[in-house]
Amino acid sequence: MKQINSLTGMADLIEDKSKPDELAIKVFHTEETLKKIFKSFAMSEIRTPALESTNLFKRSVGDTSDIVNKELYTFSDKNDKSITLRPEGTASVIRSIVEKKLDGETHKLWYMGPMWRYERPQKGRFRQFYQAGVEILGYPEGTSEFEMISLVCELNRKLLIKKPLIKINHLGDSETKKLFCDALVKYLTPMKSDLDEKDMQRLDSNPLRILDSKNPKTQEILNKAPSISEYLPNGAKELLRSIQELFSDKCEIEIDYNLVRGLDYYTGFVFEAISAELGAQDAYLGGGRYDNLCLQLGGKSLPAIGMAIGIERLALISNQKYKNNTLVSFIIISSNSESKAYKIAHELRSINNNIDIDVQLSQGSLKSKLRRANKDGASYAFIVGDEEIKSKTVVVKPLNDKDTEQSVMKLKEIQKFIENLS
């Protein structure tokens, strides 16, 4: 029978503690670190469904975005309703807040989980990928931006990111956008034939998105284009300067007036963090203010700011040293004593949270089980057979220290021994 393989861009992540540099291990540890950071900022977790109505993303992300036009995993269910695997988390969070009638309150929320986009798999990005996100809702511009950048700086610090750069910009209000887009279209129209097909479409549908073009020729043309800074109100420029000045001793922050975000719902302040270690696609998190999204989805006016974190990309550049718990391999060498030996292992597990006890369930010789213990990276083997059950003892064999002989300990002694392990 022909083997069934995973779909393109859908990666398996399998934890192997003996290979600490594997992507799976780094992803799992990165997730745990992020959860601790979110908790330290007094944020509450929210979980939303992986499947949503397709209209949710068309109304929020925007019909002109690449996500909606090319990357959605969309299909009809048995009732012919169009449903989509979520490509991002913010729209689902706001949909939930509106549906639960919580849009008149303030919230500090975080989420984590898989997202799906049909795009070419690349370094740190798969078709099913994992994202963490933060949404701060109900606070007007001028306060929550500082909380968000503080969180990014803390994330960079805890995960030991080398030379991270935070780029910030402001998209202004609706009047700013209109004046700037008109000036941009006027500047680019005579050079329209020099743009690629994608940028020509953007010029007609969403000129602001041209600033995000990856085409080197387009970027060269944009060198002499009008800048949004010419149209920004003084308050917006002052906010950018204040953020840059306040956090200059914590993170490198650059004001980049060409920075835009890829989703249509962004308004006002926007930002992203990049690392040269990721190559051309160098952003590992990004976000901004989206004060109109709640209204667009049928709720009340709700000022909001959020960010999304690419967990695989972040894991690739994390230099955090992860310390696994001390592993003890619990080896039972007599089938006659299995049930009583399992009870001993159960009681030992509750003594020290920094110790992992792995009961070897497979049959085999003591020699083969010790080989397995060494392969798994165990520090000790606890060996129990008929004689040990009778005498209420355990054989303790150090695996890392070849100069220390194995010893036999009474159950009370082994409990004390485990208490002192770290």
Brief digest:
The protein has 15 helices and 16 strands.
Q: How would you characterize this protein structure?
A:
The chain is an alpha+beta fold and 422 residues long. 35% of the residues lie in helices and 21% in strands. The strands form three sheets. Strands 1-5-6-11-10-9-7-8 form an eight-stranded mixed β-sheet. A hairpin with an 8-residue loop joins strand 15 (393-398) and strand 16.
How many domains? The number is 2
Query: What is the terminal separation in angstroms?
Result: 48 Å
The value of Rg in angstroms is 27 Å
**Which parts are unreliable, with pLDDT below 50 for 5 consecutive residues or more?**
none
Which class of secondary structure composition applies to the elements? Answer: alpha+beta
Shape: elongated
On the 0 to 100 scale, the average pLDDT is: 90
CATH architecture of the largest domain: 2-Layer Sandwich
Main sheet record: 8 strands, mixed
Record the strand order, biggest sheet. 1-5-6-11-10-9-7-8
Topology of this protein?
Elements: H1 23-40, E1 44-45, E2 51-53, H2 54-60, H3 66-71, E3 73-76, E4 82-85, H4 90-99, E5 107-116, E6 128-137, H5 144-158, E7 165-170, H6 174-188, H7 197-205, H8 216-222, H9 234-246, E8 252-255, E9 269-274, E10 283-289, H10 293-296, E11 304-310, H11 311-317, E12 326-332, H12 338-349, E13 355-359, H13 366-375, E14 380-384, H14 386-391, E15 393-398, E16 407-410, H15 411-419
Parallel strand pairs: 1-5, 7-8, 12-13, 12-14
Antiparallel strand pairs: 2-4, 3-4, 5-6, 6-11, 7-9, 9-10, 10-11, 14-15, 15-16
Helix pairs in contact: 1-5, 1-11
